[in-house]
Specification:
heterodimer, A: 4-stranded antiparallel sheet, B: about 450 residues, mainly alpha, 17 helices, flat
């Protein structure tokens, strides 16, 4: 049988590709559709860059080096880790008023089934272990002034989805 | 290559003009030879079509990347899915019309990365930089394999090799093979995935010309042996042994059509031997040994590569010199010697390193001489030129490298020039004798 140029096989491949993107998009929407509270994180924007997805601000977080509770011991190992995020009284002022800024208070490999635990991946970067949450890029329009945000001038508005992953919702300027 | 066809046409026309062959025969010979050239099946229109598709795809990616924040996410995603299905379906329907199908295939090939970029933008996705490229290659490979034209397959193979190199050498990805920090070994499944990507890149490469993907694989493996991986090697002897073995393997297994030369594989082997000549300046292994000792796996792999290369050289036809029984033994001896000379470095000191350098110089000198003899015998001008080029580069390097002073270098240049003059005389004499023997 000649596979080359067979329109039925090619349509099957095309259908699989389109279905993959439809399913992935649906999954992304569904996993983010939760009633979990939205909160803010202190960020340290690194630099904006261009790639296939366009302009984005590369973000580092204070919680990228978690220090509370068991964290100093647990962050020595690379791989999967859960970090407990809580309001410990730190505040920042935005256009919407004063908002709480969450901090990392504990770390665990197998956390209890309670809200507030966010999934992270410990990797080794620039000479030390760093917790990556999958919220290290915020994409914006190439004319958006926030792409030039300086370190400490913006907050990341986030929430925890059904899979305990942090979801980046917005980048909010501090006043 | 184009100049060859021009010259062929001129020679055939001259022969037809001289009455040696008829104009019809001249045209038939030219058409036959010209039709068998690489990429003969692709007309200029196909290449322009491929470029058109490439530009349109990149343009769409940039427009999407500018981030239309006025349009809501579901609309953007739905529009993308429609565009994806439309481009693919149009490519399938217009498959018989290359002027339209080639650009559409290009657009189709780039649609997955466009979608991944769009989704990353909408959902602010970040993380492993290698995953998007792997997903793109996995989604695009089936269509590339099913396509009647090779453009998508070439791009897909290049994408897989690019991902392999960048991923395995990066510090934090699912393909990372280099140690993140001292004593941190990467999981075994990273190796399995890297080898799967390597196999995929080779399998997707269109046609039966495996020399390029084999070369890319060989170079990648050598880089992995040199990098801080689980198979790292640090002793000069093992580095030289594995490097020469890989060059010999590429040269022996890089299957080319019979009328083709070994090309890049041969140049790589020559380059490797040429670099070996610089062992003359060897001062010890301190520099390469700074990042630890050989790993057991790396050592075992180096010996395995040597065994494989040795068996291949013995049992496969050599491709160092043009095919032909008369040069078979010379080619095999040169290849084997290039690997065996690394054994001198197992007790590495300045004396043994100099012996390696001298051996490498002799190998290149022998290759150059045999090439000239072989080219003269077969009236192969290209082979003669290659031999002369190797001898010239070798001589110039050594004069500057070893003799140092202008007086000594000048004398050496004159002596070599006279030697070349004598060589040219004997080559010409040999050619005349060959022509005479044909006339008789």
């Amino acid at each position: 049988m000649n596979w080359k140029g067979n329109p039925n096989y090619l349509r099957l491949v095309l259908g699989t590709q389109v279905l993959f993107f439809a399913a992935w998009g649906g999954w992304l929407f569904a996993s983010r559709n939760t009633d979990s509270p939205e909160f803010y994180l202190a960020t340290e924007p690194v630099d904006p860059r261009d790639l296939f997805s366009g302009t984005y601000v590369a973000l580092n977080y204070e919680i990228s080096s978690p220090r509370g509770g068991d964290c100093p011991r647990r962050t020595r190992d690379l791989g999967r880790l859960f970090v407990k995020l809580e309001d410990k009284g730190k505040k920042a002022v935005t256009a919407a008023g004063e908002v709480p800024v969450y901090e990392a208070v504990d770390c665990h490999a197998n956390p209890p089934q309670e809200p507030g635990w966010a999934k992270a991946e410990m990797i080794y970067r620039f000479g030390g272990p760093v917790a990556m949450y999958g919220i290290e890029r915020f994409y914006l329009n190439e004319n958006d002034p926030r792409k030039d945000a300086r370190s400490g001038s913006v907050l990341a508005k986030v929430k925890i989805d059904r899979n305990r992953s942090l979801v980046l919702l917005d980048l909010v300027e501090k006043i | 290559m184009a100049s060859y066809y021009k010259k062929l046409r001129a020679d055939l026309e001259a022969s037809a003009g001289a009455g040696i062959i008829t104009p019809e025969q001249a045209a038939a010979v030219y058409d036959r030879v010209y039709g068998a050239r690489p990429f003969a099946a692709f007309r200029a229109a196909h290449w322009i079509g491929a470029a058109a598709g490439l530009f349109v795809a990149l343009g769409v990616i940039l427009i999407v990347a500018s981030n239309w924040d006025k349009i809501d996410a579901p609309t953007k995603m739905f529009a993308f899915l429609l565009l994806f299905a439309g481009a693919g379906e149009a490519a399938v329907r217009l498959d018989g019309k290359p002027a339209a199908a080639v650009p559409l295939e290009m657009v189709w090939f780039f649609m997955p990365i466009l979608g991944i970029g769009l989704y990353a933008q909408i959902f602010n996705l970040s993380g492993d930089p290698v995953k998007p490229y792997l997903v793109w290659a996995a989604l695009a490979a089936p269509a590339a394999l099913l396509s009647r034209r090779p453009f998508s397959a070439y791009l897909c193979s290049a994408l897989l090799f690019f991902t392999l190199y960048s991923g395995t050498l990066s510090s934090n990805s699912i393909l990372t093979l280099t140690a993140a920090r001292l004593a941190d070994e990467q999981p075994l499944w990273h190796w399995a995935l890297a080898l799967a990507v390597l196999a995929g890149g080779t399998a997707v490469f269109p046609g039966r010309k495996l020399s390029l993907p084999l070369g890319a694989s060989v170079v990648w493996l050598f880089v992995m042996l040199l990098a801080d991986t689980a198979i790292k090697i640090r002793s000069s002897a093992l580095i030289l042994l594995s490097g020469m073995s890989l060059a010999a393997l590429w040269l022996t297994w890089g299957s080319e059509p019979e009328d083709d030369k070994a090309g890049l594989a041969l140049k790589t082997w020559l380059g490797a031997v040429y670099l070996t000549t610089f062992f003359w300046h060897y001062k010890g292994d301190e520099y390469v040994n700074r990042s630890g000792a050989d790993t057991a796996a790396g050592g075992a792999l180096a010996w395995l590569l040597f065994a494989g290369a040795l068996l291949s050289v013995v049992f496969r036809p050599q491709r160092l010199l043009p095919a032909g029984a008369r040069d078979e033994l010379a080619g095999k001896v040169l290849l084997t010697a290039s690997m065996l000379c690394s054994f001198l470095l197992f007790d590495a000191n300045e004396a043994t390193a100099k012996a390696v350098a001298v051996t490498a110089n002799l190998l290149l000198a022998a290759f150059g001489t045999v090439s000239i003899m072989s080219g003269t015998r077969d009236s192969d001008e290209k082979q003669i030129n290659l031999g002369v080029a190797v001898l010239t580069i070798l001589a110039v390097t050594r004069f500057i490298d070893i003799f140092g002073s202008m007086l000594r270098s000048g004398m050496a240049f004159i002596v070599t020039g006279l030697a070349f003059g004598a060589l040219a005389y004997f080559v010409n004499k040999g050619r005349k004798a060959l022509i005479e023997s044909v006339k008789k």
